[in-house]
Amino acid sequence: MEAFTFYNPTKIMFGKNQITHLGRQMRNGGIKKCILIAGQGSIRENGAYDQVIDSLEKAGIKHTEVWDVEVNPRLAKVREIIEQTKEYGAEAVLAVGGGSVIDTAKAVAAGVYLKDVWNAFVHKEIIKQALPVYTVLTISGSGSEMNGGAVITNIDTRQKWSVTSQHLYPRLSIIDPTLQKTLPFNQTANGAMDAISHILEFYFGNEKALSTLTINEALLRTIIDTTDLLQKEPHDYDARANFAWSTTLALNGLSGVGMRGGDWSCHGIDHALSALHPGISHGEGLAAILPAWIEYLSEKEPARFFRWAKCVWDEENVIRAVRRLRNKLEGWGLATSLRDLSIKPDELDQILDMIMVTPTIGGVFKLNEDEVRALLMLAY
Ligand code: NZQ
Ligand code: ZN
Questions:
Q1: Ligand 1 atom with minimal separation from the 97 CA
Q2: What is the CA(143)–ligand 1 centre distance, in A?
Q3: CA distance 107 to 154
Q4: Which domains does the chain have, with CATH numbers?
Q5: Which helix (H) or strand (E) holds 201?
Q6: Which of 16, 21, 14, 22 is nearest to 245 (CA)?
Q7: Could you report the per-residue pLDDT of 283-312, keeping only the tens digit for each?
Q8: With the C-alpha atoms ordered 310, 314, 316, 321, is the resulting torsion angle positive or negative?
Q9: What is the pTM of this model?
Q10: How many CB atoms lie within 10 A of CB 297?
Q11: Looking at ligand 1, which atom is closest to the CA of residue 198?
């Protein structure tokens, strides 16, 4: 097992009606004024907005609101909210929504202290401080509610890039699974795909980290089983709750303990796809890449993939396990090829250029340009 540091300061309040605690938690954290950030309106339908406002009012916390954060959230919006946050004098940023809203909130929280927030993404300027971030999660999958990462797209330069900082862990995240019963199934499937890929980006990194591998297999099986249940019955509370908690654990540090930092090629490739086509959601892009990535690598290093095939799919043969994964994703309505995502063959060179910002990609498998081209062809 590799040496590791485990750090996660985010407090989680999980379960029905937990939003009632939000205002008091903020007040106890010294917050009197916050900026509430939201997406395109789903929080009015799922009940989160009314509960949040009620809780803030009861605790005497003043707030202002910013709406319309888009999926694959944009830098221009982040910059706009940074100015509003400063103008209002907010002492905290409150995200009510999914990964897109939370990532925007994190970028804003750091950005109020930076000359240009984008430098933290592209030039890796160190984030030395940030406003406290509070979140109310309404869609599970990204893991952003319990980690220090944020992913933002600069549409002008077609770059979807990420940043990580210990200052960006939310101070508190409230996960009430009942808020997620309004999700259309395709969004639940996107979240499942994302969380599965978070685990698998780490999973093949170190066959000796048995405790982490075993936890990850349990998380993978739980995510797959609960997604199947939710496909049949979106109101199944226990399925929703187990799904939500497993996807949080998939990217809160636990799934990567002793795993050499993970690979992250599939995420890098997906970020290029959605930077070029912002209509492609993160989960959709990953579904088209991840099975091909395993298939491609298992031809080169089959032994690395046997354990996953056996422990997750009960298969002795890796290619059969990849087929089971593809069938599962397709059964959830996800496309598993670039062609089915309507990527045109003549876009592949541009996508390759966007991916290869370094001579190789991947922290574990290190693929060069020719290998990534071959992988894209296989995923096509
Ligand atoms: O905009 P609203 O109205 O809120 O609607 C959202 C959005 O259309 C809707 N939704 C959310 N909760 C709902 C709901 N609809 C009905 N009922 C509810 N309860 O769902 C849609 C998708 O929301 P979004 O926030 O985009 O989804 P997700 O949580 O999957 O976040 C995806 C973003 O997270 C980034 C991705 O790159 C992507 O930009 N990621 C962030 C990570 C991190 N910070 O650690 C890691 C991940 O790898 C990922 O890259
Ligand atoms: Zn992801």
A1: 4
A2: 10
A3: 13
A4: 11-179 (3.40.50.1970), 183-379 (1.20.1090.10)
A5: helix 185-203
A6: 14
A7: 999 999 999 999 999 998 899 999 999 999
A8: negative
A9: 0.97
A10: 22
A11: 48
